[in-house]
Design a protein that fits this description.
The protein is an alpha/beta fold. The protein contains 11 helices and 14 strands. The protein is globular.
Length: 307
C-alpha cells in the first residue's frame, strides 16, 4: 500500500486521483531528512525522534518511513574538459553504485558542459543506465562548466514528470568550479518547486583544490568572477556533499545515503500560492540526548503550490 493511500485511510482524506498521483483534497509537504554526526550516517531513528517546523510552527507528521518509498534519481554528469579521468573512475564503479538502489527505483542520466542534454530517460533498468554512462558520458568531456544552469535544467526535467509520491533527487558529479551561468537562489527555487534535493560528488584530483586556492590568492577578482559552485544549493535543498579523491567509492556511498534518508510528510499549512515558507527539522530532546553530535540535513523551505 502506498504511503499516500495510508494517509488517506488514516486521516479521512479523499483522494482526487489514483493513489499513485501526488494530489489529494488536502495538500501534503514531504521532506527528505538525513542524520549524521557530520562524518558518519546515523540510523535507527523513529517518527517520534523528529520535530518538523513550518514557518516556526511545529507540524504533526502524517507519514514517516525509511527506505520504503521508491526513488527517482537524476545522475547529472559534468562532461567539461577536465573531467575525463574522473568520469572513468565513476563509470567503473557504476555497477556497484546502482546496486544500492531498490526494486521500483528509477534513474535518468543527464550530461552538461555549457549546455545540458538528456543522455537517458527515466528507467528502472540499471543495465541500461550503465550502458548510457559508458556510451554517452565516457570520452565526451570537452568545453566549459555551467553548473547552476545544469541544476535548474535537471529540476525542469522533474517538473515535466507527473508528480507522484516517489522521492526525487539529483546527484551531480563535478569538479565544482564552473563559469557563471545562473544564480544559487534560482537553482534552489527550481529544485524546491520540483520537490527534489541536490546531492553532490566533488571530483577533484590531488592538489587541484590547493591549485584553485593559489589562483584565488594571486588573482582574487578573477577567481570570484569565474567561480560557480553547487555547494550552497546542496545545503539549502537538504542534500549531501562528499569530497574526496576516491570517486568510485563515493559514488556508491552517496547512493546508499540517498536510499537511507528518512521521509517525513505533513499537511500543507494555509498559505498564499507562490509564498515561500521555511522548514526546520531537528531531533527531539530525547534523541539529541542520545546522539549529542547528531546533525539533521533537510531542505530549508518550499513554495506553496500555485494549484
Amino acid at each position: 500500500m502506498s504511503w499516500l493511500l495510508r494517509i488517506a485511510l488514516s486521516s479521512g482524506i479523499a483522494l482526487a486521483q489514483e493513489s499513485t498521483v501526488f494530489k489529494t483534497a488536502v495538500s501534503l509537504v514531504h521532506v527528505d531528512a538525513e542524520v549524521t554526526d557530520r562524518t558518519r550516517l546515523l540510523s535507527g531513528f523513529h517518527k517520534e525522534d523528529f520535530r518538523v517546523f513550518d514557518n516556526g510552527a511545529v507540524q504533526t507528521l502524517l507519514y514517516f518511513s525509511q527506505e520504503e518509498t521508491p526513488l527517482d534519481l537524476i545522475l547529472l554528469f559534468d562532461i567539461s574538459g577536465s573531467m575525463n579521468p574522473k568520469l572513468e573512475r565513476i563509470a567503473s564503479s557504476a555497477h556497484a553504485a546502482l546496486a544500492e538502489l531498490r526494486h521500483g527505483d528509477r534513474v535518468a542520466a543527464m550530461v552538461f558542459n555549457r549546455k545540458s542534454t538528456i543522455a537517458g530517460p527515466f528507467t528502472d533498468d540499471m543495465q541500461a543506465v550503465e550502458q548510457t554512462i559508458n556510451e554517452k558520458v565516457l570520452g565526451k568531456a570537452q568545453g566549459g562548466t555551467h553548473i547552476l544552469r545544469a541544476v535548474s535544467d535537471a529540476a525542469a526535467y522533474f517538473l515535466k514528470e507527473t508528480r507522484t509520491e516517489r522521492r526525487r533527487a539529483v546527484l551531480i558529479m563535478t569538479d565544482n568550479h564552473g563559469q557563471p551561468s545562473g544564480h544559487t537562489n534560482t537553482a534552489v527555487r527550481d529544485l524546491w518547486e520540483a520537490d527534489a534535493l541536490l546531492c553532490g560528488l566533488e571530483l577533484r584530483s590531488a592538489g587541484e583544490t590547493a591549485l584553485l586556492g593559489v589562483r584565488a590568492v594571486l588573482s582574487p577578482t578573477a577567481a570570484f568572477m569565474n567561480m560557480e559552485s553547487m555547494t550552497a544549493v546542496v545545503e539549502k535543498t537538504g542534500g549531501d556533499l562528499l569530497k574526496g579523491h576516491d570517486s568510485g567509492a563515493d559514488f556508491e556511498e552517496m547512493i546508499r545515503r540517498l536510499r537511507l534518508r528518512y521521509m517525513l510528510v505533513y499537511g500543507l499549512p494555509p498559505g498564499k500560492p507562490g509564498e515561500e515558507r521555511k522548514i526546520k527539522v531537528e531531533l527531539s530532546e530525547d534523541a539529541r540526548g542520545k546522539n549529542p553530535k547528531a546533525q539533521v540535513r533537510a531542505r530549508y523551505g518550499y513554495y506553496v503550490p500555485k494549484q
